[in-house]
From TrEMBL:
The gene is dapA. Its main location: cytoplasm. It is found in: Cytoplasm. GO terms for biological process: diaminopimelate biosynthetic process; lysine biosynthetic process via diaminopimelate. This is 4-hydroxy-tetrahydrodipicolinate synthase. It comes from Streptomyces harbinensis. The keyword Ribosomal protein does not apply. It is an enzyme of class 4 (lyase). One of its GO terms (molecular function) is 4-hydroxy-tetrahydrodipicolinate synthase activity.
Amino acid sequence: MRPEAPFGRRAAAMITPFTADGALDTEGTARLAVHLVDRGGCDALVLNATTGESQTTTDAEKDTVVRAVVEAVGDRATVIAGVGTSDTRHTVALARAARSAGAHALLVVTPYYSRPTQEAIVHHLATVADATELPVMLYDIPARTGAGTELTADSLRRLAEHPRIRAVKDCAYDLHKSALVMSGTELAYYSGCDELNLPLFALGATGYVSTVANVAGRQVRAVLDAVDAGDLAAATRLHHHLLPLIDAVMMEVPGTVAVKALFEAAGLPGGPVRGPLLPAGAELTGRLVDGLKGALAPVS
């Protein structure tokens, strides 16, 4: 039995489209949201997070992104706003702004850089959850937030007692911890690393927050559908079929760079990345396009 899916099951970690001169592309943001829901098979969109270049967008831009997406697809998909920062007061302010902009839920990453203790991390996350009535998905990604910032199983068990903390976006690369928390709490787990989607589904994860779903949403969904149907062999075959694309998008450069390169090749809204990220070169773009063509081809 999988836990209730409080935020949908098939979420894309959506990029933030920019214009050619690097400004926020509001119209492109709305158009991309519609594309991901209507053609990508997504029932949720995560905005203003890692793939959305949250570290280089302003608070006002984040607000505009949420409003544009809610207006475009808010009645057909769960809109989850990333609000995490290393500053508790700033994170609370972003959470309240996201609520005012119409977001349905919040994604809150563990605080980074200042290396808080587990007690401080739990206090930070609970404080943000207390700040609005919106449900919260925790974001556990120590590879980006830094050593010592991973949520321990004990901390996750404590946070699971909060009435508004409902889920975890899991990028911790610790399947044992994930299984312990899934088996001992009612937290819904969402795979946040496409390469681990299938293993986490097998352990009981509810769904995914996928970078690859920006470009191959229906193919990512097909793996979950096969698991739901009880056909592990088919799920494994579909996951293996996606691995070359996952490897190209996730392993060589930040996923944002890869997705924006593919969107440019396909004529979809994306635009440039913001520094310090650099755009993909011609050779990498060629490999990405080949990987996408392979993923979209029928599974033999």
